[in-house]
Amino acid sequence: MKNITCIIIDDEKDSCDRMENLVSKISGIIILTKENNPETGIKEVVRLTPDIVFLDVEMPGKNGFDVVHEIREKNVFPTFIFVTGFDQYAIKAIRSAAFDFLLKPVDIDDLNAAIERFIELKNEKMEIIIPEKLKTKYMLTEREIEIIKLLLDGKSSLEISGTLFISRHTVDTHRRKILVKIGIKSTGELLAFINNFR
Q1: At a CB cut-off of 8 Å and minimum separation 6, what does 105 contact?
Q2: Average pLDDT, the chain
Q3: What is the mean pLDDT of residues 118-140?
Q4: Cα 122 to Cα 16, 19, 117, 181, distances in angstroms
Q5: What are the beta bridge partners of residue 102?
Q6: Are 25 and 108 in contact (CB under 8 A)?
Q7: Alpha-carbon distance 51 to 31, whole Å?
Q8: pLDDT of residue 70
Q9: Cα(46)–Cα(27) distance, integer angstroms
Q10: What is the 8-class DSSP label of residue 59?
Q11: Model confidence at 180, in pLDDT bands (50, 70, 90)?
Q12: Which domains, ranges and CATH numbers included, belong to the chain?
């Protein structure tokens, strides 16, 4: 697997620096930038499209949940790992589609475990190969490719939403866009088309 890219967003400089120090100890991860301002963090995530965003919850101006929402509204879908000292946010974080939740002060073993789960999920997604010419011809986005792979694997919209940490409504919206782009009317036709295209 290629190097994993990440961005750290935390308004507390010491926490940001500590997270940078921990992440830098894990091989195969590149820190693109670290930001202490949530607004700047959003801009950098959209510009650099990292694989992972390590994100504080309690920040002035915008909290972590606001940041997640705004980034997804811009059609950028990194994996979010919340990092906070307030464990009461854990359930809300999970429900807001965070991939994982780390409690401050972050333990290197917990960080390693989160990265390993991320890699496992990525590897599972990569098992099904979609031809490059199909992506190019129909201008399919990376998110649409992920959804097609999971459909080919027999997953329902509900199962896909759980795997990709997005809402079922978002999955169904992507499915409709895929059908329109390719010019077919049903998921059954889509699966047959993809299999024949190979």
Answers
A1: 18
A2: 87
A3: 76
A4: 26, 22, 9, 25
A5: 83
A6: yes
A7: 10
A8: 92
A9: 24
A10: -
A11: very high
A12: 4-124 (3.40.50.2300), 128-197 (1.10.10.10)
Mean pLDDT for the stretch of residues 106-133: 80
Give 17's pLDDT tier (boundaries 50, 70, 90): very high
With beta carbons less than 8 A apart as the criterion, state whether 172 and 182 touch: no
In angstroms, what is the C-alpha Rg of the chain?
Answer: 18
- Rounding to the nearest 10 degrees, give the CA dihedral for residues 134, 140, 146, 149: -30
Contacts of 48 (CB under 8 A, 6+ apart): 5, 7, 32, 33
pLDDT at position 89: 77
Dist CA 95 CA 106 (whole Å): 21
Residue written as token pair 């010019």: 183
Distance between first and last Cα of the chain: 23
Q: Which helix (H) or strand (E) holds 12?
A: none
Per-residue pLDDT, averaged over 32-51, amounts to 95
